[in-house]
Amino acid sequence: MDKKTRIAVVGAGIGGLTAAGFLQRGGFDVTLYEQARAFSRLGAGITLGANVTKPLRRLGIEDALVTAGIKPHSYVSRTWDSGEIVYQLVFDANTENRFGGPYLGIHRGDLHAVLAQGTAPETLAFDHRLIQLEETDSSVRLVFDNGRIAEADIVIGADGIHSKIREYLLGTEPLRFIGAAAYRSIFPTERLNGFAIPDCTKWWGPDRHILPYFMRSKRDEVYVIGVVPRRTWETDEASIQSSRDEFMALFDGFHPDLVRVLQVTDDVSVWPIFDRERNDRWSGGRIVLLGDACHPMRPFMGAGGAMAVEDAVILSRCLSECASAAEAFRSYENTRIPRVAETQRISIENTWMGGPTETDWYYCYDACTAPLAKP
Ligand SMILES: Cc1cc2nc3c(=O)[nH]c(=O)nc-3n(C[C@H](O)[C@H](O)[C@H](O)COP(=O)(O)OP(=O)(O)OC[C@H]3O[C@@H](n4cnc5c(N)ncnc54)[C@H](O)[C@@H]3O)c2cc1C
User: Fold this and answer.
1) Is 77 within 8 Å of 4 (Cβ atoms)?
2) CA of 296 to the centre of ligand 1 (A)
3) Which residues contact 124 (CB under 8 A, 6 or more apart)?
4) Cβ(69) to ligand 1 under 6 A?
5) What pLDDT, on a 0 to 100 scale, did the predictor assign at position 43?
6) Is the CB of 289 under 6 A from ligand 1?
7) Structure letter (DSSP) for residue 175
C-alpha cells in the first residue's frame, strides 16, 4: 500500500504499540491514540513466549525486555494436593534455540514501557479517548473526549476488551462473564523469609488453578494469580479488593509449598474474567480490529497478549505487501483466524501444559516470517 496512507491506531496497549512500531518501521504515517494520561505500573505480571519475543526483536527491544523481565529456568505444572510434577518445560539453551527466542515473565507496566521504546514518541497521543467514529468514502473521522478530531485513511482498533471500535463495527454485544474470577497479589520476595520457590509454577486443582511467578531477574517481587469459580460479577468496577484470608481460604487444602506463598500475600484484588465467542469478522471498510478488541480470550494459556502481538505483526505485513486496504484485511483475517481460533479453543479447555503438551506449533511460530494467506 501507499506509504502515505494515514493510519490511526487506537489503544496503546500490547497490540497497539506493536502495530505502531512495525508500521512506522515500514514507513507508514502512523498516529497512536491512548485514553490514559500516561503509562502506569499496573499491578500484574504477564508471561511471554518466543512467539512474542522473536518478533519484538525486530523492533530492537528484545534486550530491553530481557533486562526488564526474567528468563525463568522452567515452567512447572504440579498437582494441587500431592505436588506431583505433571509437566515441566525447561528453558535452557536448547529450548531457546528450538523456539528461536526466550520465554519471559515480566511486569505489565515494564512491558508497556519497553514496547513504547519501539514507537516514535511524538506519534503517541495520550489523553485521547475515542468516543466516536465517522466513516466517509475517502477517510475516517475520529472524535476524542478531549474535543480533538483527527482524520485517517485506516483505523486499527487496538482498544482492548471494552473496544469502542468493535462496537462501531459489529454492534453492541455484552462481554461474556466466564463464571470465574482472578485473585491477584504482588509482594516482595523477602516476605518468604528465605523459603525458595521456583521461577514459575502452575498448581492445578480440580476446578481452580494458581500460578506464582517472578517478574524480574532480581526475583525481588512475586506475582500470584489464582483463578476460582464465581457465579456472578455484579459491579461495574474493573476489580474489587479482597484479603489474604479470603485468598487462602479459596486454596485451602493445596500443597504446603503453595500455602507458604499465600501466607505472605498482601494487597489482594479480584478481577472478573470475560471473553467472547469466536468471531470471524475482523474488519469492515477502512476499519480493522486486533487483539482483545477482536478476540478476547480466557487467560488460561497466557496467550491473549501474544495473540495481540502476532496480529499486529501480521497486519503490518499485510498492509505493506497488499495493494489495497481491503486486500490487506482479507489476507490478515485469512492468516490469523485459524491460529487464533485454535488458541482460543485451548484457552477455553484450560489444558495447556497441564500434562504432556506439544508446544512447538505455538512457540516456534514467527509472525515476521510466517506465510501470509491469500486475500
Ligand atoms: C488475569 C489475566 C492474565 C493474563 N495473562 C496473560 C499472559 O500471561 N500472557 C498473555 O499473553 N496474555 C495474558 N492475558 C491477556 C492479555 O492481558 C490481553 O490479551 C492483552 O493485554 C490484549 O492486548 P491488547 O493490545 O488487545 O489490549 P490492551 O493491552 O488491553 O490495550 C488496550 C489499550 O486501549 C486503550 N483504550 C481502550 N479504550 C480506548 C478508547 N476508547 N480510546 C483510546 N484508547 C483506548 C486502553 O487504555 C489500553 O491501553 C491475561 C489476561 C488476564 C485477564
Assistant:
1) no
2) 9
3) 12, 20, 32, 34, 116
4) no
5) 66
6) no
7) P
* Strand extents, DSSP E, the chain: 6-10, 29-33, 45-48, 74-79, 85-90, 104-107, 124-125, 130-135, 140-144, 149-152, 154-157, 176-188, 201-204, 209-214, 221-229, 240-241, 269-275, 283-284, 287-289
Q: For residue 164, report the distance from its CA to the centre of ligand 1, in Å.
A: 14
The model carries a pTM of 0.97
Query: Of 33, 75, 168, 213, which residue is the catalytic one?
Result: 213
> Looking at the domain 6-46+104-174+277-363, which fold is it?
FAD/NAD(P)-binding domain (3.50.50)
- Hey, whose CA ends up nearest to atom 20 of ligand 1? 305
The finding on whether 299 has its CB within 6 A of some atom of ligand 1 is: yes
Cell output for 128: 485521547
* Contact status, residue 305 vs residue 52, Cβ threshold 8 Å: yes
- pLDDT at position 193 is 96
| pLDDT per position as a tens digit, 268-305 | 999 999 999 999 999 999 999 999 999 999 999 999 99
Q: Is 213 a catalytic residue?
A: yes
State whether the beta carbon of 272 lies less than 6 angstroms from ligand 1. Answer: no
